[in-house]
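Its record is retained below.
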Amino acid sequence: MAAVAATGATMMERRLVLLCNLYLQNLSARLESQHQSTLQPMFQLKQLLAAAQLCAKHPTIPVVINHMGRPFRLFGENNSEMMPDEAKLDEWREGMRAMAKLPHVYVKISGLGWAVPNWTASARRKDLVKKLCQETVQLFGPERCMIGTNWWMDEGRSDGGSTTDGPSADE
């Protein structure tokens, strides 16, 4: 908890971490006597480091990070220069490195349009998405990565705009 406070977390974020820790402690105790279950929280980018500390305390609970840790709009709002936000990328990398050190943590490669909206529209956007995916696989290893999709549900809010039928097989 002290490490979370040191990160500049708000009171609400500290309370959330405390509640999550209590929940995981309870879940960990129950799982030891029952069948295995997997935790799939929707971590926010700013929560990855605290989540890694929390997950480290509960190594018997497999955890799946959704949407590659949810890096959000890496090109920022209205970024006509198409330059990635390096501060956001650094924050994502730091959090994902911490999570990847935990052998019971896995990651879903999904939600690409949240990281880079309309990512199929230009070579530069496709390249950033490709690099994010490759970096994720390098961090976790292919054995701890999986592909996830909400295409049918999220197309209009994430990857839509340049195609009507979704990305091609190559994309």
Q: What stands out?
A: The first helix runs from residue 2 to 6.
